[in-house]
Amino acid sequence: MISFDRTHQRFHLCAHGVSYVFQIMDGYPLHLYWGRLLSALRGSAGPLFVKRSFAPYADPGHPEFSLATLPQEYPAYGSGDFRHPAYQVQFENGSTVSDMRYTGHRIYRGKKKLRGLPATYAEDDREAQSLDIFLQDDGGGLQATLTYTVFRDFGIIARSVRFTNGGTAPIRLLRGLSTSIDFRDGRFDLLSCYGSHNNERNISRHPLSREMQVIESRRGASSPQHDPFFALLRERTDEDHGEVYGFSLVYSGNFCAQVEMDAYRTVRASIGMGPFDFSWKLGPSESFQTPEAVMVYSDQGLGGMSRTYNRFYRTHLARGRYRDQLRPILVNSWEATYFRLNERKLLAIAAEAGKLGIELFVLDDGWFGRRDNDRSSLGDWTVDRRKLPHGLGWLSERIHGLGLKFGLWFEPEMVSPDSDLYRAHPDWCLHVPNRQRTLSRNQLVLDLSRADVRGYLIQALTAVLRSADINYVKWDMNRHMTEIGSAQLPADRQRETAHRYILGLYELIEALTSRFPDVLFENCSSGGGRFDPGMLYYMPQSWTSDNTDAVCRLKIQYGTSLLYPAIAIGAHVSAVPNHQIGRVTSLGTRGHAAMSGNFGYELDLTRLTDQEKKAVGKQIAFYKEIRPLIQFGDFYRIENPFESNTAAWCFVASDKSETAGFFFEILADPARPLHTFQFKGLDPHALYEDAATGSTIGGDELMYAGLAVPAGKGDFRSAVWHFRKKKG
Ligand code: DGJ
Fold it and tell me: Which positions are annotated as active-site residues?
């Protein structure tokens, strides 16, 4: 999969239909090609040496060899490249100029772990091959290892960088991105995701412009505002055709992605940890590991890119016992009770849930300290006996007795000023001496860069998780960082705080998930506010959005599917009028939207009418039928709710033996077109049987002719079809 042509000093990485080629010239790794598989690259795409005005050069005999124009793998600052650099350091003499050159390389089977950071993995050394490129700056003692991994079964290139101070004086790392690629032309559209609380992962697509495009978070978390992801698409690329280059970062904190077109329309694209307000002091022999960037090339449109990310992240990023297990259908107490909970109410909901076939009851916020509203108690992880006089052990036993598993909500990273924890340890939160401590949702952020804070949280959560039979944890995080400073770090390391926090978070979650391997952990940040590949490594599913309105969810889940598999996308049926936006949709449409992900309910089941209970029972039975298909199948987007009045998609089993198609019409239309649902991804030569009617239809017909969507009146209508391949 990785070869080295010694004569031309050229590396060729290839896997699953994709080639990636670069070459060492004068010690610089120069990027040559990334795209469809090549048998070999024999020179057609060698670097083009063009002498340009204002392009500096080191060798007067070769003025065309200029870093200002050459396509590079990991560009530096200071020796003639005026485009944005992939990294920057400051040496003890104050200079920020560096010049790392190739000193050697190593090709090996498998993939190494990244110390302290989440990353994709190979379970078996035969699945992947890696390449380390060693670089060194002779002047200042800086060394770096560029690591590349290719996977046998995926069109993926994973990249990360490790910096080491090989000198005797400290070096300050100011910027260390995970990957940088120079494309030869600028005929691309830039696609990225943006949003906010209740409105995550909208899709933005526009032609590349001459101005630098930056996608970043400076909030201390990956954030709902922007995803640590972007893609470059050829202008005519659509959902099913054309070339796409995807860049995704496995990290949960500040990040930065940049796309810069120069005067000659070459494009530099990069992604990595955010350099904003960051620096890291590297003492002699110390190293710094960047997060990993996962790059996907697809020539089958956005859909091809998404299916690669979906499957790869489901099988080579998410981990643990639940990775390959069907996930339980749950009911969550939040929208049913908010903070006004008691044993009687919770058990009544659980009893109803048990009768309906729900498998997990989740007790959300409000069970601990004296948490009657969001103004107190975060940090005090002991059960509130006023609300739950018999304690969690008793409650969990009762819930298990009703045939359900039991789950519990925590927000471990936070502290309320009105809490015993804060009164005892006011210096345990992120803060800057003599400055105000700015609140958000009435809370402060615990300083997870501190070992004592992490130690407290491990002990507090362990005590709760051992006090009862708890099978699931919803790990919430509801504010971003302000006054970012740590009482434990010296002045010259304060700008390390935000990254040290994320490293501390990862260490904390690693400790808890290893200690409780049977507990299913769900990631949440006011919904999908930290839904990123870094968190997916530790927690195999995420609450996608606090917005449970079925129509809003069509877009939110559509955008989320660009990268993430349906099994990771928590989606619940909630009450109407919807609590976030007030819309009324039918139970059927709410069910179909939620079934398109990791299914559950978020309402007071005791308030349903008998007819509604019957319908919910049917939804649950149907989801159980299609659950393996939804959770382990491939996802095909068919109609885009960002662009039309309809949304449609289908799930297809990996062996094409089964499919479920979902169709949604958002607003009633007096001039309603005749809608046809055309499946994708089926076996055109097979016959499929409609699981509802028993009628048979060819895979070719389902895809090319399609099914007529029944007409009807009213807003927010939906339909579903389920087909199984006929045997023989
Ligand atoms: C935000 C979450 O996204 C909600 O689901 C709920 O858990 C609340 N926090 C509780 O405070």
Answer: 476, 546
In order, the DSSP letters of 261-300 are E-TT--EEEEEEE--TT--EEE-TT-EEE--EEEEEEESB
Residue-wise pLDDT tens digits, 90-141: 999 999 999 999 999 999 999 999 999 999 999 999 999 999 999 999 988 9
Tell which atom from ligand 1 comes closest to the C-alpha of 374.
11
d(CA 526, ligand 1 centre) in Å: 5
CA distance 379 to 696: 58
Beta bridge partners of 294: 158, 248
Burial 685-694 (b: 16+ CB within 10 A, else e): ebbbbeeeee
pLDDT above 70: percentage of residues in the chain: 100
Strands (E), 283-437: 287-289, 292-298, 330-332, 360-363, 405-410, 414-415
Report the separation in Å between the CA atom of 570 and the middle of ligand 1, taken as the mean of its atom positions. 13
Task: Kindly give the number of the ligand 1 atom that is closest to the alpha carbon of 525.
Answer: 3
Residues in the ligand 1 pocket, defined by CB under 6 Å: 334, 364-365, 409, 476, 478, 524, 526-527, 543, 546
pTM above threshold 0.90: yes
**Tokens standing for residue 223:** 């954030």
Q: Determine the angle formed by the axes of helices 391-401 and 343-356, rounding to 10 degrees.
A: 20
Residue 133 corresponds to which amino acid? I
Determine phi and psi for 646, rounding to 5 degrees. -130, 160
